[in-house]
Amino acid sequence: MKIYDIETVPSRKKYDVAIIGGANMGSAVASFLALNKDFSGSVLVIEKDMTFQFASTGASNDCMRQQFANDINILIAQFGAKYVKNFREFMGGDPEVPNLTIRNFGYLYLSDNDDFTEVLKRDQQTQSRLGAGTQMVTPEQIAEAYPFYKLDDIVAGSLNVVDEGYWDAPTMLKWQIRKAKEHGVEYVQNEVIGLDMAENKVVGVRLKSGESITVGKLVNAAGPRARVISNMAGIEVPIEPRRRYTFTFKAKKPLDRDLPLTIDPTGVHFRQEGDNYLVGCPPMIGDPAVDFDDFGFEDGIWEKKLAPILANRIPAFADIEIIDAWVGHYEFNTWDCNAIVGAHSKIKNFYFVNGFSGHGTQQAPSMGLGLSELITYGEYRTLDLSPFSYSRLERGERLIERAVI
Ligand SMILES: Cc1cc2nc3c(=O)[nH]c(=O)nc-3n(C[C@H](O)[C@H](O)[C@H](O)COP(=O)(O)OP(=O)(O)OC[C@H]3O[C@@H](n4cnc5c(N)ncnc54)[C@H](O)[C@@H]3O)c2cc1C
């Protein structure tokens, strides 16, 4: 991603809002604040690496779907699709802003057993009630629409090709940053190393370069490092970095139509990537937290895990050539795989926008809008994000999102 012309030291000593992290979440919040005529405060975004190379954002596969299990996540996905399809309008109507589109190859969940088929059926009913285009499909229907799959073990699937697929999320982020800056948001490439607290409030941030900045409100948009920032305020959050692998590849014999983002019963998922293909997966054994800076591959992940699964599901993928590969970190919420958003119950000027567990790129527009409303008006006005409040953790309540890929 392009490195922006960027300062390292803030121009002022005091800001109404400081956002730690300028990637998907931080810049979504910043751009919605900047473009809201009712908000007139000063905003500082502190981002330690504006290339986003090691951020979750930089590793994202940039796909969106409505096939979630919770109402709120489906509504969030629908707003995300609306935002992408009306991007220029959301960016203030500037004709220079590109129109973004969704490549609707869809998502196809495959089930190889009756229990999971029942789960998919329940989710399909939830999604359908909220207007999503998901349909349950039989192996025969899948074979007719996509003759390239081997389906002998498959009992059923769920498929939606409306507003599900890929979009150009890096361009979205680039324009969010540009518009935020045009409307007065200041970005600095620097690292927050401490918070100053007084009477249950965050009053300042300390930067690695030595400056201390006074802040009115603080937004934690630090991705997998959300816990590090929270700990600076004496708060615990159940968020940890978990490793995910992505490979892109060319097939010697390409498929004759778009490959939906297919979630194989093994948990491996693959999809169309331009004229080529992309495959992603969790580790081979378990899914442990890893070090923040650990982006290493497991030995044999391609040969032992991915290659056999791909060739089994799509025989044409027995003959492929790897183009690229990378490791990224999910900012995984171990409590219930859902976001933690909004103000802390006691430190009321500390705002979370964390824990997206693998679906944060598509949720960034809704989260940016929601948090900007909470900061501006003291309430959510478009989408009620209060089910994601930190207080659910204090009450011991889980809002489990089952459909995590
Ligand atoms: C392999 C992979 C594939 C994915 N695919 C998808 C997908 O298809 N669709 C989807 O919706 N989501 C996907 N996701 C999830 C998505 O990428 C994340 O949920 C989303 O990018 C989270 O954005 P964020 O801004 O919260 O975190 P991040 O992108 O991690 O950004 C946090 C930022 O905070 C900065 N920071 C941290 N600490 C400090 C500090 N002390 N001082 C200053 N800056 C700091 C970091 O440098 C970083 O840039 C995927 C994730 C991975 C790993």
TrEMBL record:
Q: Which residue ranges does UniProt annotate as crossing the membrane?
A: none
The record's Gene Ontology cellular component field reads: cytoplasm
Under Pfam families, the record lists: DAO
Tell me which domain of life the UniProt entry assigns to the organism this sequence originates from: Bacteria
Q: Which GO terms describe its biological process?
A: mitochondrial respiratory chain complex I assembly
The record's listing under InterPro entries reads: FAD-dep_OxRdtase, FAD/NAD-bd_sf
Q: Does the keyword Phosphoprotein apply?
A: no
- Domain FAD dependent oxidoreductase intervals: 16-373
Q: Name one GO molecular function term.
A: oxidoreductase activity
UniProtKB keywords:
Oxidoreductase
User: Protein name, please?
Assistant: FAD-binding oxidoreductase
Query: Which organism is this entry from?
Result: Oceanimonas pelagia
